[in-house]
Amino acid sequence: MIxxxxxxxxxxxxxxxxxxxxxxxxxxxxxxxxxxVRSRVTQPPADVSAMDGYAVRAAEALEGARLTVIGVAxxxxxxxxxxxxxxxxxxxxxxxVPPGADAILLQEDAAAGDGQVRVTETVRPxxxxxxxxxxxxxxxxLLPAGKRLTARDIGLAAAANHAWLAVHRAPRIxxxxxxxxxxxxxxxxxxxxxxxxxxxxxxxxxxxxxGDPLVLPIAPDDREAIAAAAVAARACDMLVTTxxxxxxxxxxxxxxxxxxxxxxxxxxxxxxPGKPLIWGRLGATPVLGLxxxxxxxxxxxxxxxxxxxxxxxGLPGEPPRTIRALAGAPLAANDRRxxxxxxxxxxxxxxxxxxxxxxxxxxSMLKVLSRAEGLILxxxxxxxxxxxxxVEVIPxxxxxx
Amino acid sequence: MIxxxxxxxxxxxxxxxxxxxxxxxxxxxxxxxxxxVRSRVTQPPADVSAMDGYAVRAAEALEGARLTVIGVAxxxxxxxxxxxxxxxxxxxxxxxVPPGADAILLQEDAAAGDGQVRVTETVRPxxxxxxxxxxxxxxxxLLPAGKRLTARDIGLAAAANHAWLAVHRAPRIxxxxxxxxxxxxxxxxxxxxxxxxxxxxxxxxxxxxxGDPLVLPIAPDDREAIAAAAVAARACDMLVTTxxxxxxxxxxxxxxxxxxxxxxxxxxxxxxPGKPLIWGRLGATPVLGLxxxxxxxxxxxxxxxxxxxxxxxGLPGEPPRTIRALAGAPLAANDRRxxxxxxxxxxxxxxxxxxxxxxxxxxSMLKVLSRAEGLILxxxxxxxxxxxxxVEVIPxxxxxx
Lengths: 401, 401
What we know:
2 copies of one chain form a homodimer.
Chain A (H helix, E strand, L loop, with lengths): L3 H10 L6 E5 L12 E2 L9 E2 L3 E4 L9 E8 L13 E5 L11 E4 L3 E4 L2 E4 L9 E2 L10 E3 L7 H9 L4 E5 L3 E6 L4 E2 L10 E2 L2 H11 L3 E4 L7 H10 L5 E5 L10 H5 L4 E7 L2 E2 L3 E7 L2 E6 L3 H20 L9 E5 L10 E10 L5 E5 L8 H6 L2 E5 L11 E6 L6
Parallel strand pairs in A: 5-6, 13-16, 13-17, 14-15, 17-21, 19-23, 22-24
Antiparallel strand pairs in A: 1-12, 2-11, 3-10, 4-6, 4-7, 5-9, 8-9, 18-20, 20-21, 22-26, 23-24, 23-25, 25-26
């Protein structure tokens, strides 16, 4: 058995980013940039007015002065002439400041009438003018390769005149649930069987993490069926299986894939829930074999699959973010396996988060998993802790899963 | 001018949830449930084995005992008989426990051979059996209406045998950018013009918030063009405009919509950036008029549009979540407008977050907005603060925008 850290390191080092594809700007949100975005324009393209008012020569725009309004400059319609002595141009936010003017008289500080404007508050040189290039200049790198694009980044790329973006292709993750006992929701349930949940939860997790899930038909506990489905998934950037990863006679994933050339890296991790986890490669396709218990499958997906999808997407693939919280109940001493306790998160009297484990931690309990707001981390051989002690927690809401 | 809180209250009270639609389970992730999910099955459907081993009668499974293996029970293939005195059944994780047996002997605690199994560690009654209904029972409400569905919830709904879900329709948000000076990325830029960024950033923000953006063609600064585009957007659950919301002669949204029956609620908020914000109704369609400055538009979208989309989606529509941080630089005293300073977020020496405002806070600067990790909240008339003082911050990464 290897440690959680060692397992994640070995998984990540076996993965590299998908190639780039061109997508329309409007489809770029939440994708990972494959090439930097450099500005194709200077913004603003000239000195522009930051307010509605009058473009003036500051030296003469003293309180009480009267100026002749010689024209108007709305945004997008530059005034063609020059502001000479004793003159002003009516101007609006975003409009180019006409030559000759060096400040904006706010309309609140002006009294207009009869083609003239009277200054009611003295203007300082340069006031309310946004200088050319204040935001960015042509050729400047605005967004680096490897950045996950926010809505604000999309706005910035638009302003920099990009209609297209080069992003990493969303990793296609094949998902293969195995087992004679499972049926799709709504389908007839075999005697002694249950409804399949892992593939659907994992597909949603893949989507939440920026991947493109490909849910394969359920494979029965039969070596040839598993091998056929796995071969069909070679077009994926990664194949994820659930079930069949344990040590029983009916745990078939390794046995089925071996004759197909499966190269095993490791298959046991010192953790709970989720000790039996397969990692290897089928030809060029990385294969992650998750346990069949739904809670084990999801906890392993949080620890290993989400970072793996990030790495495939062009990000480094960090461990899940943790927060410091106070234990809401006493915690027993831990054994040699890294434990992940399903817990609620609340805000304590002093504003600190309080993580309280559910009394039942059985790895089959989906209802508890659905209600959990975090996973309390318990390192191997961690001592017993009283209520109120500090613990590290993975907040699940963060991950959108 | 009204306060930020009052503006949000008036926006939210004018909105209600979209009607329900039926979607396949696989499309339910991140949607808001319109009807509760009740279980259609009991899980597990019978007492099942939690491990691989042997189903035994605990009273006789004492260390050293030998039992006759009378059959096998893989998951999905229940053993047809009964476990009698001196007997055991080979069993695998998830398989129904056969009648007569009341505990599981772990395979690690057993030595098998010649059709028999020898007990190497005494078994306790009930050990390694998951009782029928441990997770949930038929008819139980598992997921309430109004819940945003996580990947784990999708797994739970699947296990409860739901192939379809009733969720609120994703709110369709029309987005209308106005202005003679703006051009689409890649299109010819008019003299004195710039590239349009707001509509694209807002469309991404709408998508990040669970809405369905409908980006309308840019409307020039012309009353009839704006009126026509607005009328075309009546099919939307909300129309969002950008630009034309200020007090200049060229701020046309109110003037253009008035003759179409626009009922104004308010149009100025005591905040920065983003004082001019229109809220009203065009027939049955709520209209949110955002400022044209890109930073103002995005900050107003964080404060008002994201909660509005949440309310339309079937959620209450809360203010953005804030965190407590330490100011990374001294902050000047504030005036009467609620301020939102673009800031970086870092982790300080003691593990607390530190929010440092960018030196330039001009509302035209998209590059600064893109690099900001949070908005420092400065209430009206807030006093000057030294570096290290506690401040409230909206973390932007949280919002996926």
